[in-house]
Amino acid sequence: MKEKNTLTANNTNSFWQRAGRSFHNNWQLYALLLPALGFLFVFNYLPLYGVQIAFRDFKAAFGITGSKWVGLKNFTDFFSAYYFERLLVNTFLLNLYGLIFSFPIPIIMAIFLNQIERPRYKKFIQTSIYIPHFISTVVMAGILYLFLSPSSGVVNTLIQALGGDPIHFMIESNWFRPLFIISDIWQHAGWNTILYIAALTGIDPGLYEAATIDGATKLQKIRHIDIPHLVPIVVMMLILSFGSLLVSNTDKALLMQTSGNMATSDIIGVYVYKMGIGKAQFSYTSAIGLFINVINFVMIITVNWISKRLNQTGLF
Question: What CATH architecture does domain 73-311 belong to?
Answer without folding.
Answer: Orthogonal Bundle (1.10)
